[in-house]
Inverse folding.
């Protein structure tokens, strides 16, 4: 059994794609479609890494990131942010941290998602 | 005190009369003969002269003539001897005011003087009056000239074109503004051209008819009526016309019209529309870019999975990848269709069709989509998909003339929105349902799309039909409702909605489908085919 990765995205297709890519490389993919469900799965399944879509309705992505980082039980789990919003190719941590004293995300992948880049980032973070 | 010249060769008479006259209040100048008298007359200009008629040297008649030559208005009274009636008559013929006979009777003289005074007074008054009259006429003329000049200037220098015609319609006033507007010179048109000549054929008649009607500013008036003029070079010039029919003593005498050049305003309007369109295009492009990036994302994902399946020889991955490709091809096709419909003027393509069939097609398509979604959801997360679509069709609806492609598109857009509204619904235990409903109404067909999803806030409801407004972020284009309304409008139908936040939304479209309109519809459809061919 490979390492367990939680994909949180409000688009089923995105989950379908990411989980296929990850499972093909030997990971176990689990998924959730909003922040609330995502936190439940984190607690229940204790994933090794979280792939989190930042642009979900009602600040779902940012909210979940903050919940993760404020919770002793979950703050150490690496989080990769999936975003369509990159300013000039650079990701701005402030958009995710919202001026709070929490660590920056461990990585970013941009939509449309490049599978090789995703796999490399995941393998680097989990090694 | 008025001057009086007394001429007599006899000194005692000069003395006696002089005393008498001074006592009467005259300033008396005396002269001993005619010559001296004339000189005094020239120097002193007395208004009244009293002269003896028989004198050595220049006699009284000669004096009279000369005095009248110097000033015809001088009153001359002659003193004649007894029996000199001929001379007296001669003197009167030469415009003497009176005569008195020697020996001079004071009363007779007094009467003669009084008459002379009166004649002087009348003449003075007449002169005063005449002088005043001249001044008054001069003043009035000046006023009139000023007023006329002012009006002429006003008409001539008005930026607006001003044109007037007499009863026959012939142009009588044509100012600089008109010359600039239509390119004819005043000389070419005044007295030569009828007013109708500067309008395109038929327009002049329409304007005259409008002038006599009530619609624009009341009877015999025209206020801010928009029309066109035709210039000497044949160019049509948009103008705003104000005018009035002219009457004198209740009889129509002509028409005056004021023309405001609307070319610049029309140009600015076109520019404004153009720039609004450009800015809308800018917004649309930005929105489209996000949306297509999303589709691209899905397409690339599908392609990657298909490739993986082929490379690693894993046939079980193929359907998943291919479904992803198909799904996104579908989305991009929807997008392109919506864009085409939105950007082009189109006429509904009326054919005989069954409204329920259209609704059934949409139901089938959406049902299939939702089934696939549900399967995927169960496969990935072992979750039940909560959105279901239902149908409620009115079996009494017969076939009628409608544009099935357009209505299909409308229903598809509304159902897609309804699904999104249900997906947004945060209550996990709630079963979401969408109902596609058809109903026959008096002479229209009604389509309802009912959902029990998230509903819309008032703010969202207000912006609903704004250009490219979307609540879905990069997952929406803001085109769906715009296109839907456009199709409904083109179809002569109506679209309305009712929404309660947290409870759901119902969209209602009504399309006219009366039997009486169907023949027109066929005719219109036939024409379009001919023109399209």
């Amino acid at each position: 059994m490979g390492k367990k990765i939680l994909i949180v995205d409000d688009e089923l297709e995105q989950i379908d794609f990411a989980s296929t890519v990850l499972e093909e490389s030997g990971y176990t993919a689990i998924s959730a479609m909003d922040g609330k469900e995502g936190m439940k799965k984190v607690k229940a399944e204790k994933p090794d890494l979280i792939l989190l879509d930042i642009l979900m309705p009602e600040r779902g992505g940012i909210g979940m990131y903050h919940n993760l980082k404020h919770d002793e039980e979950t703050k150490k789990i690496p989080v990769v942010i999936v975003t369509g919003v990159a300013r000039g190719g650079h990701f701005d941590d402030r958009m995710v941290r919202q001026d709070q004293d929490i660590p920056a995300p461990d990585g970013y992948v941009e939509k449309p998602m490049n599978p090789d880049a995703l796999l490399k980032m995941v393998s680097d973070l989990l090694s | 005190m008025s001057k009086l010249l007394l001429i007599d060769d006899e000194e005692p008479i000069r003395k006696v009369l002089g005393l008498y006259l001074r006592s009467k209040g005259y300033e008396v100048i005396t002269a001993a003969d005619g010559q001296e008298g004339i000189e005094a007359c020239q120097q002193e200009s007395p208004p009244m002269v009293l002269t003896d008629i028989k004198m050595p040297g220049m006699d009284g008649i000669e004096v009279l003539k000369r005095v009248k030559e110097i000033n015809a208005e001088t009153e001359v009274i002659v003193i004649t001897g007894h029996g000199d009636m001929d001379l007296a008559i001669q003197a009167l013929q030469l415009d003497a005011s009176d005569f008195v006979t020697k020996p001079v009777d004071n009363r007779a003289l007094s009467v003669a003087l009084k008459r002379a005074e009166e004649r002087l007074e009348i003449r003075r008054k007449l002169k005063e009056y005449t002088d005043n009259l001249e001044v008054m006429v001069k003043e009035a003329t000046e006023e009139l000239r000023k007023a006329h000049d002012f009006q002429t200037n006003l008409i001539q220098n008005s930026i607006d074109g001003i044109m007037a015609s007499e009863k026959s319609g012939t142009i009588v006033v044509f100012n600089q503004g008109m010359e600039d507007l239509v390119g004819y010179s005043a000389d070419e048109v005044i007295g030569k051209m009828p007013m109708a000549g500067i309008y395109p054929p038929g327009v002049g008649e329409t304007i005259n008819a409008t002038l006599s009607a009530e619609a624009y500013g009341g009877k015999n008036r025209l206020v801010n009526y928009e029309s066109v003029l035709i210039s000497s070079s044949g160019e049509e010039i948009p103008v705003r016309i104000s005018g009035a029919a002219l009457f004198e003593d209740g009889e129509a005498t002509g028409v005056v019209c004021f023309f405001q050049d609307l070319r610049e305003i029309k140009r600015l309007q076109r520019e404004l529309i153009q720039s609004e369109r450009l800015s809308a295009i800018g917004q649309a492009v930005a929105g489209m870019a996000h949306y297509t990036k999303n589709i691209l994302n899905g397409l690339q994902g599908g392609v990657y999975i298909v490739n993986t399946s082929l490379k690693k020889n894993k046939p079980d991955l193929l359907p998943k990848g291919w479904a992803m490709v198909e799904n996104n091809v579908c989305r991009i096709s929807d997008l392109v269709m919506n864009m085409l419909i939105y950007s082009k003027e189109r006429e509904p393509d009326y054919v005989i069709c069954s409204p329920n069939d259209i609704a059934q097609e949409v139901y089938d398509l959406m049902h299939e989509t939702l089934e696939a979604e549900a399967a995927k959801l169960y496969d990935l997360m072992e979750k039940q998909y909560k959105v279901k679509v239902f149908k409620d069709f009115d079996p009494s609806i017969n076939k009628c003339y409608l544009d099935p492609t357009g209505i299909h598109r409308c229903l598809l857009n509304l159902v897609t929105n309804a699904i999104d509204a249900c997906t947004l619904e945060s209550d996990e235990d709630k079963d979401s349902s969408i109902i596609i409903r058809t109903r026959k109404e008096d002479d229209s067909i009604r389509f309802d799309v009912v959902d029990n999803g998230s509903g819309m806030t008032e703010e969202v409801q207000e912006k609903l039909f704004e250009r490219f407004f979307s609540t879905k972020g990069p997952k929406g284009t803001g085109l769906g409702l715009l296109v839907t309304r456009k199709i409904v409008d083109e179809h002569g139908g109506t679209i309305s909605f009712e929404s309660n936040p947290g409870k759901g939304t119902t969209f209602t479209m009504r399309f006219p489908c009366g039997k009486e309109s169907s023949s027109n519809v066929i005719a219109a459809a036939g024409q379009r085919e001919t023109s399209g061919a």
Observations:
- Confidence is low (pLDDT under 50) at residues 515-533 of chain B.
- Chain B has 15 helices and 17 strands.
